[in-house]
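#struct-help
A.M.: can someone run this one for me? Single chain, 280 residues.
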Amino acid sequence: MKFGIILVRHGETRYNKAKVLQGQGVDEPLSEFGFKQAKAAGQALSKVRFSHVFSSDLQRAKQTASAIVLGNSCGQKLEIICDARLRERKYGIVEGKPLSELRALAKAAGQKCPNFTPPGAETVDDVQARAKDFFNYLCQLLMTHTGKGNSVPDYVNTVAEHSGDLHRSLEGLHSVDSNTCDINDSNSDIAEDLIANILIVSHGGLMLQWVRHFVENLKCPLPPSIDQSKAFSVCPNAGISSFVITFDQVASSSPQIVCDYLYKCSHLDTIGVQQDVFSV
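D.P.: on it. C-alpha cells below:
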C-alpha cells in the first residue's frame, strides 16, 4: 500500500506578521497577503488529484485549505474535513502576546524556544503525540479500506469532529474523473501507484513535530538539499512538503517514508515570502 501526503502550512495572518503568538486561543483569519499566499499554494497544487483534504479547524488553516481546493482543477467539490488534532500548539499564558515574551520567559527559565513550555501550554511531546495519532489514524483507515489491516484500533471508528462520513468517502478514492489531473502528480518519480493523495493544512508548530516524528522515529531520510537544522525549524507560511508512505506487508509493520520535498516556497516568489523561523 502506498499513499501520498501533501502538508501545507496556512497563509500569513496579521499576528504572524506582527510576531504575536496565536496558538489555539487566537482564531485569526488570513490577512490579505495570507490569502495571496494560499492562492499561490493552490496554483502550485492545481494539477494534483487529491483524494481527501484535511485541515485544522482554526480559521487560518480552513481558509488556506479552501483556497487550495478552489484553485484545484481536479477536485473543487472535495469536502474539507476539519480535525482538532491538526491545530497549532497551545501556548497557554502567552497566546495573544508577542513572541518576545515567550523568548523572555524561556531565557529566564534557562531554556530555548520552541522547547520551552509556558504555563498552560502543551509540551512539544504533546504536540508530536497529536501528529502521530492523526498519522496513525490515516494509515489504519487506508489499510482497512484496502483490506491490508489485520486489526483496527477503537479510535479508527471514531470519526473526527465535523468530518462527515469519512468511511463512506474512502469508497470514492478514485472518484475524480479528469483527463488533466493525476493522483500521482509530483516532482519526483517516487510517487507511483498511489491509492490516495491526501492534502493536510495545518500550522507551523504541529508541522514541526510531524516532521520530527517522521525523521527521528520513522527514519524518513531528508532530501539531499535539506539539512536537519532546516527540517527542524518552522515551515514558512504557505510552505509545502510532500511525502510518500509505503507499507510493504502487514498493518503492524513500520512504514517506509520518503520526503519528496520539504517546506517548498518557490511558488511564493512572485508575491514574497515571510522567512521568520519561529512565527506561529
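A.M.: thanks! The beta strands are 2-9, 52-55, 80-82, 196-202, 240-246, 256-264.
D.P.: also worth noting: Confidence is low (pLDDT under 50) at residues 149-180, 186-191.
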